[in-house]
Amino acid sequence: WRDAEAARLCTERLLKLARETRRRVHVLHVSTGDELPLLANAKDIATAETTPHHLTLTAPDCYERLGTYAQM
Description:
Elements: H1 4-21, E1 25-27, H2 35-40, E2 46-48, H3 52-56, H4 61-66
Parallel strand pairs: 1-2
């Protein structure tokens, strides 16, 4: 799993590249709340989606609690 900082940095980089190249992007599997303000400010160039487990499971706690049942 990647931490919240890595997720935010990757999303920032993607949005910067999209603006520089004047291309629209779609971000799959948004996994942190830190990415939401970035995406909200980029509605003109970006769409996004997430999955239920990204909304309900938090690593590493879910792995400690659920073991391999937490894996998708």
